[in-house]
Design a protein that fits this description.
The chain is of the alpha/beta class. 32% of the residues lie in helices and 18% in strands. The protein has a 5-stranded mixed beta sheet, with helices on both faces. The structure holds zinc ion (ZN) (2 copies).
Length: 182
């Protein structure tokens, strides 16, 4: 049974990655290991947008999946984008080995509100489970009680739980339908 490697990218030292790891283990029923941090992601930086291209980051991460893992998830404070969108909270390869999540826009201070570290972490945990869900083949889910529901605003992240609905949970089980297809 493969494991998920959580990889600290720039800014991640501010985050309790252990909490993310625990939720990932709980939701995915897979071991979660902490990978060595990746300190330089300059090649993903786009000076014209002053943001980081999440596609470039994912390309970088797919080459860095640790030997003992089958997935890698980068966590960072840098602001992410994909060319057609103003920003993304995170991105992942559908059924692929890599994903990335940023907490740049999960921080209340970004919206001019007082700092709330607990809320930031709760949002980040949800987005991490969501992106890892994509790497195990899950699409967006219409169930409001599912972490795979898509979120454009932090308010929508706050409304959804950190866990999968029954159907999504079933298909990400290590012996579930999606892994049988591989
Ligand atoms: Zn998504
Ligand atoms: Zn679902």
């Amino acid at each position: 049974m493969g494991a998920i490697a959580l990889m600290p990218l720039p800014g991640a030292e501010a985050i309790d990655l252990e909490r993310i790891a625990l939720q990932l283990e709980f939701s995915l029923h897979r071991d979660v290991t902490l990978a060595e941090s990746l300190r330089h992601v300059d090649q993903a930086y786009d000076p014209s947008r002053d943001q980081y291209n999440s596609r470039t980051l994912i390309d970088l991460l797919r080459g860095l999946v640790p030997r003992d893992a089958e997935r890698v998830l980068g966590v960072t404070s840098v602001d992410l984008f994909i060319p057609v969108l103003t920003f993304v909270f995170g991105e992942a390869q559908l059924g692929g080995p890599a994903g990335v999540v940023s907490f740049f826009r999960l921080d209340n201070r970004f919206y001019g509100l007082p700092e709330n570290g607990e809320l930031l972490l709760a949002r980040l945990v949800k987005e991490c489970v969501h992106e890892i869900g994509h790497t195990y083949g899950l699409l967006h889910c219409p169930d409001p009680d599912c972490v795979m529901r898509s979120s454009t605003y932090v308010e929508q992240i706050d409304l959804k739980p950190a866990n999968f609905c029954i159907e999504c949970a079933r298909s990400v089980q290590p012996d579930g339908p999606s892994s049988r297809m591989r």
